[in-house]
Amino acid sequence: MGWTSCSFFKVNIDPIGDLPSLNAHILNTQDWLQSAQKEYDSFQAILKEEQAVNIKKKFKIYQQLKALNLRMGKALSHITITLDEQKKMALELKGQPGLVFVDSTSGEAHPLLDSFVSNKQSIIQSQSVYESGKLKCIKLFKKRKKRLVFIRDQIKPWQNEVAELALKRHEIRESMIRFEHTLGEAVFQQENDLYQKNISDLSRRLNKRIKALNRFEKNVKNMNGIAKREVGALVFMTPINDSKKEYENRFEQDLIHYKETLDELKKTFESL
């Protein structure tokens, strides 16, 4: 390719030793490309509007944005072509009876496999060019006192954080099981009405909180679609001092509530 690749991705190529890993690579790349292409297409409308301003006021920034956009587009085109080549190689490999990826005696790989791995490395380098281009665009927009947001990139760390927090629910699972056992005993042993009522009320309150945790986790999992519906695009730009979008404020508030609820549940179950 006609550019120097950046180090956004470390090019560590996993070995391809069988058809499932080969298929997984193709499917993962295909999913990434589809998402990136939609994102890139969404970015074009913003870029067109911004270039119309920058070409008059900040010509240097206009030139930089134009060059970056061109590099990003070429990277996606290169991935599209290379992925098509890989699909053809995969079909050829699948069509060979008794296929062996690596000869156990000589240690030599199937001839097509070397080409496939080389293409895989080229794809990762192109992904790096595309991703680093986005980061540079964000910095250029920041110079113009504007906030450029690629929703998919923004939301990924949110999802990772909530996934880690959700693991804490497993830490209190044993306490929950003990409480459910206590609840069952209260009904089975026909404890006095007041005790049964207190246990039932507590159970309803706890279930309400647990359902709230489940709703939040589900919303964060589907946040890309939610944010896109609210904003109307996968990429948006606002003046840097403008108020945050509704989905951004809602996530921050709900995250605080989620953490508080986890702590409350832990304390409640530990006290039972």
Description:
The protein is mainly α and 272 residues long. 77% of the residues lie in helices and 4% in strands. It contains eight helices and two strands. Strands 1-2 form a two-stranded antiparallel ribbon. The radius of gyration is 26 Å and the shape is flat. The model is unreliable at 1-13 (pLDDT under 50).
Compile the SSE list and pairings.
Blueprint: H1 19-57, H2 59-94, H3 111-143, E1 146-150, H4 151-171, H5 173-188, H6 193-221, H7 223-231, E2 235-239, H8 246-271
Antiparallel strand pairs: 1-2
Helix pairs in contact: 1-2, 2-3, 5-6, 6-8
Structure, briefly:
This protein is mainly α. 77% of the residues lie in helices and 4% in strands. The protein has helices spanning 19-57, 59-94, 111-143, 151-171, 173-188, 193-221, 223-231, 246-271; strands spanning 146-150, 235-239.
User: Helical content, roughly?
Assistant: over 70%
Shape: flat
How widely separated are the two ends?
Answer: 64 Å
Mean pLDDT: 82
The main pleated sheet reads as: 2 strands, antiparallel
Number of helical segments?
8
Global Rg: 26 Å
Flag low-confidence runs: 1-13
Assembly annotation = single chain
Count of DSSP strands: 2
Strand order of the largest sheet: 1-2
**Structural classification:** mainly alpha
Task: Provide the descriptors you would attach to this structure in a database record.
272 residues; mainly alpha; two-stranded antiparallel ribbon; 2 strands; disordered N terminus
